Amino acid sequence: MRACLERGLVSGGVAGALGGLPSIVLLSKHDLAASTRAIAHLVPGNQRVRSPIMRFLLGGAVHMGISLTFATLYCCLIRRRPLIYGLVLWAVNLKLLAPRAVRDEDKSHALADHLVWAAMVGWLDRYLGDRATRAA
Question: Rounded to an integer, what distance in angstroms lies between the CA atom of residue 55 and that of residue 105?
Fold first, then answer.
């Protein structure tokens, strides 16, 4: 159990930090900041946070928490078909976690982000698991 938690936290942290590369490359800074701030709605009392910078930081923290959680679920329970997992997370994100009016091109950017994230989580899970097996 400890090994899957470690793999989940490492892969979720790395993928959470780098999984948004398609959006970083394709979206303007304003669109990217608005997208990051939008996820802050999941925090109770978030309406009191008026500063756009604080909402951005709050959104980033929530996003990283979500990344760590879903990566750990993948590493401990699923461990196969990471791209399908990424596709499911994309749908869950757009429909449940961050439901808002989203332009079609933003949906495709978000899909690319989630697929990159899932590929990174799947690869890191295998890599770290194989490395631990070789060390044992």
Answer: 23
